[in-house]
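Re: [ENG-882] Designed sequences occasionally contain unexpected residues at chain ends

Forwarding the minimal case from QA. Structure tokens:
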């Protein structure tokens, strides 16, 4: 069993970038999650990272398993693991299950901006512009309610605004008040 520090995880991620081997990194992250005892980062967050790496390695079935383990773990994560599960289900050509999961996330009524961005980008990638627009808009509105000076919050807000604007252009919608926020600091 291991205590996982943010520093240790950062070194592992940096080395993997140099090696450009997503499968090897996914395996290391998986091993780290299995041996997890405590740490600066939750086991669920490590599992989400592992899932993303499995996807990059072209192994969506293994990614799906890691996302599901992260969800079951229930630890603190930056994005709801169900968003990753839905994206992976789309990738596995299971769109009905993916859309059902997206609806269940929304039905919970506690969507955060990072999850909204993830879902909006997923829906955009799979051609559902109307739903992607709705998710991006909701993410901005939720984020503006708790907008603070944190850099991550500002990056997420800006990413949501840019994604939403791109979707609006694709849908042929005119600019609105939220579009005007693209250059306005929070």
């Amino acid at each position: 069993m291991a205590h996982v520090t943010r520093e240790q995880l950062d070194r592992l991620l940096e080395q993997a970038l140099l090696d450009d081997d997503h499968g090897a990194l996914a395996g290391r992250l998986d091993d780290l999650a299995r041996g997890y005892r405590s740490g600066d980062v939750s086991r669920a967050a490590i599992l989400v990272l592992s899932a993303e790496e499995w996807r990059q390695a072209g192994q969506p079935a293994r990614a799906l398993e890691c996302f599901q383990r992260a969800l079951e773990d229930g630890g603190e994560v930056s994005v709801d693991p169900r968003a990753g599960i839905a994206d992976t289900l789309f990738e596995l050509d299971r769109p009905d299950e993916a859309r059902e999961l997206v609806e269940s996330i929304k039905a919970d009524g506690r969507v955060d901006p990072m999850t909204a961005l993830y879902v909006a980008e997923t829906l955009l990638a799979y051609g559902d512009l109307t739903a992607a627009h709705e998710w991006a808009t909701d993410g901005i509105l939720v984020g503006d309610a708790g907008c603070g000076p944190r850099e991550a919050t500002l990056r997420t807000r800006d990413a949501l605004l840019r994604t939403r604007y791109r979707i609006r252009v694709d849908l042929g919608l005119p600019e609105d008040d939220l579009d005007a926020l693209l250059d306005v600091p929070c």
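QA comment: On inspection the terminal residues look reasonable. Strands lie at 2-4, 36-39. Proposing we downgrade this to a documentation issue.
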